[in-house]
Each structure stands twice: as C-alpha cells, then as structure tokens.
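Posted in: Protein Modeling Q&A

I'm a second-year student putting together a small comparison for a lab meeting, and my supervisor asked me to include a predicted structure for Nucleotidyltransferase MB21D2. I've never done this before, so apologies if this is the wrong subforum. The sequence is pasted below exactly as I got it from our records. If anyone can share the structure token output, I'd also love a short note on what stands out.
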Amino acid sequence: MKMAAPTASKAASLGCNNKPTFPELDFRSGARVEELNKLIQEFTKHDQREYDDQRALEIHTAKDFIFSMLGMVQKLDQKLPVANEYLLLSGGVREGVVDLDLDELNVYARGTDYDMDFTLLVPALKLHDRNQPVTLDMRHSALCHSWLSLRLFDEGTISKWKDCCTIVDHINGATNYFFSPTKVADWFYDSISIVLSEIQKKPQRGMPKVEKVEKNGTIISIILGVGSSRMLYDIVPVVSFKGWPAVAQSWLMENHFWDGKITEEEVISGFYLVPACSYKGKKDNEWRLSFARSEVQLKKCISGSLMQAYQACKAIIIKLLSRPKAISPYHLRSMMLWACDRLPANYLAQEDYAAHFLLGLIDDLQHCLVNKMCPNYFIPQCNMLEHLSEETVMLHARKLSSVRSDPAEHLRTAIEHVKAANRLTLELQRRGSTTSIPSPQSDGGDPNQPDDRLAKKLQQLVTENPGKSISVFINPDDVTRPHFRIDDKFF
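Accepted answer (user: helix_wrangler)
Welcome! Here is the predicted structure, written out as tokens:
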C-alpha cells in the first residue's frame, strides 16, 4: 500500500522544514549587525555630553565674553558692521561644520586641549539688500569659489576696507579693489589681539581666562578657560549674503529629501563667502562659497539613527585619514546629504539601522576615493576631490578597506578615544570644582542670582536644540543685552 507524501503545511507542522535562524551579519566583515548597533549606541552615549546648570552657565559666560570682544573689535576702527548677525555652530572647524581646508590648522584634541568646541562665522561685510539670485565674479576662480570686488559696495565701505584689498588697475584707468581673505584674516587677528590685550589689563571677577589665541591660516582659534571648562572658538571672518547664488540655481530645480519638510525659503535664506581658496587658486583673492546656514536647516530633516552613524563614522575617519590631509569631515557630511536624496525616507527613518548606515557611509567614502569624485551637494558640478593625486586617494582607500573589514574594532577604538577625552575633562572639573566662577556681570555677590535662572534657560535651549545654529544680534554700545535666535526662534 502506498502512502501519500506529507503536504508542505503538514511537513512544517511536523518540524520537517525548520530552518535555523542566523543573526544578521555584515557580508564583508562578518560582523553581527546587532553588535555594531550596540557599539554605535555606546559611542553616542559617551560622545553626547549632558550639561548641568554650572556647565550651561560656563557656556553662556564664554559666549558673552566672545561677543563682548567682537563689539570692542567693531569699535576699534568701525570696519565691522554695527548691527551684525553671527552664525554660531556647535563643533569646531576641525569637525567639518564648515567647508574649510584643514591643512593649515594646528591639531587640537578634545580632552587634552578643550572640552567643547564652536565655530563662529563673523561677517566682515554684508550684502543683504539684493534680490536673488546673486551673481558673483567667478571668472578668475574654480567652481565653488569667487573673487569679491568692492565695487558692489558704497564709497564708505571701500574707504574703510581698501587696506584689506588687492588692487587691480584696468587699462581704462579705473582701480578695482578685491576683498582679500588673507588680509582680512590678518586684520581680524591683529584686532582681536589688541582687544584681548586691553581686556586683560583690567580683569574682572569671573572673566574667562584666555588660554590660547592662534591664527590658523585664515581662522582665529581662541581657547577660553571658564570655571572647570575649556571652550574652543574657531572664529571665521566671512562675507554674508541674503538670497541664493546663481551658480547653485539649478540645484533648486531638483527633488530633495527635505521637500515638504521645510520650506524652500528656509533653505535659501542666505549663504557666505568663507576665506578658503581652491587648489590652484590665488590665496590673496579667492573666497569659497559656503552654505552653512542652509545645512543647519537640512540637518533638521535627517533621522537620529543616520546622524548617530555619521558621528561614529566621522570619529573613525578623523583619526584614520588625518595624514596626509585629503579627506575632511565635510566630505563625509556631503556624502550623507547625497544619501538622503538617494534613499527612501522611510528606510532612513529606521531606528535600528544605524549599523547599516555606518557601513554604507564607509562604502560611499571608499567609492568616492577610488573614483576621485565627491560632488559638492549644492553645486554638483564641483568635484571636491579633483585635485588629489592618485597615490593619495588609493592610500586612503586602502585605509578605509581595513575599517570595512573590521568595523567593530574601529568602533571600539573610537569609543576608547572619546571615553579617554571625557576622563580628562572630568579630572579637570574635579580639580576646579572647589571654585565656582560667577558670571562676568556678577558683582561678587550670590553667584546663583539671577544667573541661576539664566543657566536653567540656557540648559533647556541647549538640550532642546542640539546642532542648531544660533544667530546673535549685537549692539556694540550695549553688549550686555544680546538678542539671539536659534534657527527661526528669537530669545
């Protein structure tokens, strides 16, 4: 007698078709995705610092000192605009918050040299009264760069700034003044040094200690000691524009990941020229376009898990690809923005996909190196790696290959580095915890009134607005009352 073979459903119920379940693995390295996710979470926990009332007050005290100093710089020779609007970014220039070259920067390490770092864009000139698009003189420059003629400004502005210009005489007898990033940076450093020297002659109770002032290329780096904290401010002289540059106009015609999440008006509210030149450009004349204000808005639309992966990847490549300096964290940021355009929003919103995103960013970066191609996100026709030699890109690609072969080990190294930096910071805080430093405005009385309320408010702003920009409006005649804006909210 023949028996019928069991049906598929009956076989499954009898356990004949059971398949063993495997943990999700990364094909290239064999690493467990779950383990990578846990390592990224651990890195994030140690990398993100929480601020108590004392630390929040120290942040405010340092900020007040820097803005008061800039008010005094304005009064020196009236070069800076009286009503100025600064852009304050969390993270120093070395963290890639602005597209600047890192070659000329001295190496500062968190924990060893500072505890918190900021970048402050300070407009030396503002051009805010023109309708978009803004057309720049790019005839002498590579893509993403421009010279700036002072013919765009009034006679008073030319008179004030002509000593910071290079002069070009035309055949017809006319003289053209081109705003020089190197001369502006020299003037800015000299002016800041004069002001700090004057401030230190009359120290006030609770005033931050200026531990270091250095000119790094066209950037002025100041490290302040406030209470038990050390704050690094990278101050960058810029030219500020309202509107949008004509060279980036076609970018607005494309579909982007932020469509429908924020308005186009928020994204294209303004841009900057920062003091950096192209590989073959003329250092004394050439400025680089920066979309730092737009990037702050776009950051609102990036998922938390992708940002965690980005921060972890950045920590790995800063150490690994530091010599020779060819890849900066800003390149990685650009790749992340391109990935946001390329991939579905619901995929990028997955909370437990940080490991996938980290591996993808490493793959993207290696692809860019091998092909020597990294388009600027806002001006795609500008290849930010074009100037690199084949030898350099292949050296870095091989280094990245070692990361891709064992991402877990490199994450553990990044975690140990950030933990070591935190230990150094805590040790410094313990040594300084016996002396609580009041605000510079304090008369030496109770340091908790009224600054305690201010500290609590500032702590709330810092907690609720991580990574956002703070635009500050300063009246140099009354620097004790700054009005500052976090993105589009005034305080």
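A couple of things worth pointing out for your meeting: The longest helix spans residues 407-432. Residues 259 and 301 are 10 Å apart (CA to CA).
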